[in-house]
Amino acid sequence: MTRQSGIGRLFHVLRAQQFDRPLLDHLCDLTTLIRKVAKTREGLNFLRSLLSHKRVMLYFTQPSTRTFLSFENACHILGVQTSEIRNPATSSEYKGESSEDAIRTFSSYVDMIVMRTNVEGLADQTARHLDETERPVPIINAGSGRDQHPTQALLDIYTLHRSFEHRGGIDGKTIAMVGDLARGRTVRSLSYLMKNYRDVKLIFIAPPSLAMRDDLKQFLDKRQIDWSEHDNLEDVVPRADAIYMTRLQDEHDVAGESRQLDLTNFTFHYRFLERLGPEAIVMHPMPRRDEIDRRVDGDPRAVYWRQARNGMWTRTSILANIFAVDDAILERL
After folding, report:
1. Over the stretch 47-66, which tens digit does the pLDDT of each residue have?
2. Mind listing the domains of the chain with CATH numbers?
3. pTM of the complete model
4. Which pairs from 21-25 meet CB under 8 Å and 24+ separation?
């Protein structure tokens, strides 16, 4: 089996909006196949042989655990060598060098740069800058400030895809997004991807000060995607196919003001399981605090640990597509 005609080849991965439905479906199928191939020693050795000549820099100047480790292990699954910067104090930026100059230098050593930063738009800016040089390399946005986290959105799509593949897929589903929606880049990126699915309904549940920003709502309106807002999670639980919980992102607070909020109505309490549909799911991008009762973890509808595992495999398929070895993997079918 080879890729179908019309399916795009990624170079940069910067924003969720750049993905269309054929590419999303392709990446989901590829992710599932990679997981199957990697189950045997022979298959894993095959995957490791595909990109042993490639090098990737993990440029993570914003704290990260899951995203960093999932990208690092995705690289290793395909045999890619990795180098890393996790603290700008260890680079020449500490001496006053611009990030553009630093990253241009790094690009001469590697074949791809995966970036995580607290600066909104820096990944886009870096990609444009490198595109004008003699050696452009792919840039993957692994999280940029409060704006975008496209690879998280892709693993979320894969989680939804796998959860609903026997129920007609993502089309027609109701997805509730709960918590700090104003500053949650994961919910923003996932919302952008909903343009690729039919008859999806989004319900935003947040305190007024943490409501989804207007630019995202305008995007949904323009594409005629049904959305609504609510102020109490419990009322929405029975009609949701997926509930996407998020933590309070108080690292963005100026004076700790959001820590004073009463989040009782925006917490998934254990008793909610009685009202949750039998085939519905509860998601969370992690890390979490107290927004999900720990007793919920034991329910099969809680898929956030599976969601975290999906991150490594989804990011493996992204690398395979960018470096054009996805056809070689598909041919093993």
Report:
1. 999 999 999 999 998 888 89
2. 16-148+311-330 (3.40.50.1370), 150-308 (3.40.50.1370)
3. 0.93
4. 21/196, 21/197, 24/154, 24/157, 24/193, 24/196
